[in-house]
Amino acid sequence: MDRVRFITISRWWRGPWGLKKSVEAVAVGVVLVGALSIFLGLGTQDKSSSACQFPAIYNFGDSNSDTGGWSATFFRLPSPYGNTFFGKPVGRISDGRLIIDFIAHKLGLPFLSAYLDSLGSNFHHGASFATGGSTIQPLDGRMFEARYSPISLNLQLSQFAQFKARVNEVFTEDKRTSLPRPSDFSKALYTLDIGQNDLHAGLRLKTMDEVLASISNITAQLALTIEQLYQEGARVFWIHNTGPLGCLPSTLAYKLPKPGDLDQNGCWKPHNEVAEEFNRQLKDRVFKLRAQLSEAVLTYVDLYTARYTLISEAEKHGFTSPLAQCCGSYGDSVVHCGIKTIVNGTEVEALCSNPSKYISWDGVHYSDAANQWLADRIMDGAFSDPPVSITEACHKPPHF
């Protein structure tokens, strides 16, 4: 029998976390490599070859994805915000990480610095323009009394445009900086998570019919922002819908339910129905944009269903009291999270002993543990249209 000579073939590939790996394949003769691949049912392309190499993330939104904008602009959040994961307040309106943090980690990128934070920020891999209290449509004077942010989505877009223009002006290849490469803007992932405050503010100051009638204009403004980002060179979008407003502990604390107002999980049905209508119209807008923006890839993420699933199956997933909050309290004695208050002559700071058991951190925002659960479910595409994982979100499905 002739001696068979084995040839080791090494090639380098870059995985989804940007780490180089060496892959060695042993084949019997150079000619037989392809034949063996077919015989064994193996593809000639590496499994990770479809993974997108996003060099940066640019995020737009409200407190659900604010990595420090509100805290840097208005006032620094106090402890115990941030304590669960970071060990101190870091500008996130949670006890730890937000969904955007888990997304960045999944893509092998560092946590996003807030564009408005001038200290310790690094924008080499993107930035977050989100600010707590932000809305899609600018709010009038009445609504600012409710402590919403004046940094609405149109201002976040203006900040991004200015940031991009300045990068193009000052970037130099021969000098290491905290800025992204100009070419990264067209390759980056653009995430949007906003709309909750538009609905929440409307429900406080308008009738239900007025809020429902306003949704068309709100979603149209969001769609226009996506078009404008597209004109700036953005191509890949990951768009979250809004969550079940009627399940927020802060909402339920001030409502006196009438028969039929609460659903089987104890959530306020009228507010959830408003959120569902917003999401229906947002999805329609996204579908229309797919036809309009020929080079764009838009993924619509049903975060509402993911959040409602967690609330309805809380015990199954290790959480307790899905409609309760860990920090602060509402109702007769309002104790804001992180603030000590005198109640009946006694200093009170409402805080649970184990935040990982709570879905709601402070009555409005989700806990680190809940955000991790949600991120794990949405990043694999289970709640997305099209149903692709975030690591493959740059590829346009063939039927689109």
Can you describe this structure?
The structure is a single chain. The chain has eleven helices and ten strands. With 400 residues, the protein is of the alpha/beta class. The chain has two domains: 6-48, no CATH class; 52-318 and 365-392, Rossmann fold (3-Layer(aba) Sandwich). The strands form three sheets. Strands 4-3-5-6-7-10 form a six-stranded mixed beta sheet, covered by helices on one side. Strands 1-2 form a two-stranded antiparallel sheet. Strand 1 (6-14) and strand 2 (20-28) form a beta hairpin. The termini are far apart. Mean pLDDT is 87; it is low at 1-47.
Entry summary:
By secondary structure, the chain is α/β, with parallel strands linked by helices. Helices cover 32% and strands 12% of the residues.
